Amino acid sequence: MINRYRPFVSCIMIAGNNLQMIRNSISYFIDQNYAYKELIIIDDGGTCLKNKIQTHPNVLYFQLDKAASNASKRNFGIEQSQGEIIMHWDDQDWYASDWIRRQSNALLFSQIHISGLNIESKERSQESYYQRLYGQSKVQIYSMVTSTLCYLRSFWDKYPIKDILTMEDADFVRNSGGLVYCHTYSAGYLESFHGADKNSSLENPEERMKMIHSRKENPQPYQKPAIKVPNEYSWVIPVSCILCSHNGEQHLPNAIGNLMHQDYLDVELLIVEAGPGVCLEMIPYHSNISYIPYAPSATIGEMKNIACEKANGQIIMHWDEQDTYSYDWVTHQVTALLSLGADASGLDKFIVHKNNTEKTLMVKDPIHTKGWVYSPTLVYWKKLWKTFKFSALQMDEDDEFLHRSKAYVSPHDYTNGFIANITESSQSHL
Q: Looking at CB atoms within 10 Å, which of 32, 67, 237, 289 has the fewest?
C-alpha cells in the first residue's frame, strides 16, 4: 500500500490592521478538515490583538517588539512553527474548508519543493496543445498567487526567505532553485476586496457567507501580483495513457485524436495491440505515442503490465479507443488524484451513448463494492502498479487489481468530461 502519511502543517499569517478580517481568517483555519495543523500569527502593530481574537490550542499569536519587514516576520513565524509543511495564510482572504488537505496532497504526491495556485490554469490549454503538437520543448510559464504558497520546511531551511523590502515571495520561488507544481484548485481560494471590505464588520456568520458567495459570483476588482515561475523550474507530473486496441481500423483515430487534443503538457499514449487488426499506418509518428505489438498468448492483464512497465509517467491513466474524452480530461484526472489524496480515481457514474442515439447517465452497478470505477476512466499511481501489478486475466483485471491491492479509490465527479460510446459488440465493457 502507498503510505498516506499526513505531516504537520504550519500556516503563517502576517497580521494587518483589520481585526474583523483577522478573526474571519482564523475561523477559516479552525474550520479546516485537516487535523494536524497550526496557525502562527505574527504582528508588529502597536496594539496587541491576542485578547481580541479567538482562543484555540492550534492558533499561536506573536507580538514583535518593533516593526519588521514581511520577510523577517515570515521567517520568524516559520522558526516558531512545528510543521513539516509551510503554508502562507492571508489575513484578508477566504480559504475553503479542505484547502490545507488539498494543498498538502498536491505537495506530497507531486514530490516537489513548492506548490500553489496557478491563476493561468484556464488559459493555458491552446498554448500547451500547440507546444506538444509541433514538438516544442519550451515549458509554459506559470503564475502563482503569493497567498497560496506551500512548501517543505526542509526546503526553507536551506533557502530562507530573503529579507528584502518587496517581492520576497517572488524571490523565494524564482531563485531558490526548487521545483514548482502549480495546481488548479481555484474554487478553494478567494482574494478579498481589500478596500471594499475594510470597513465591513461581518460579525454575523450568515452575512460573512453571503460575502463569500458574492465573491464567487462576481469578478473581483483587485488582483494581487502573481509570481512568474521560470521555465526551468516549472514541472508537470508525467502521465502515461495506456490503450488496449481491439478494433484499430475503426476506432483508433478517435482515441489518438482525443489524446492529441488534451491540454495537459506532459502526456504520452501507449497503444497495446490487444487483438490482430491494428493498422500501423494509422498511428502518427510522434514522440508522445508508442506501439506495443500483439502477443497472441498474452492476456489483457499481461498486456497492461507490459504497457505499464514501458510507461514513462508517474501516473497511469486508462484510455479507450471508442469513448470520448474532453480536452481537459487528463488535467481533471490528475487534479482529482492529487486533491483527493487517493491511490486511484475515476468515474463511478458516467454518460452513455448507446448506438450513437441514446444519452443517459449511468449509475454504477449495485453488484460492485465501494471503490469501483469504470475501467476506461481508471487513473492510478505507477508505484501502486509496481507493488501489485495486474493478474493474468482476460476480463475484470482492473477490478481484481484494485481489490487485491486494497487501494484507496476515491471517484471524482467530472461526468461532463467523458462519454462511453456503447455498441452492441461492446456491452461487455459494462
A: 67
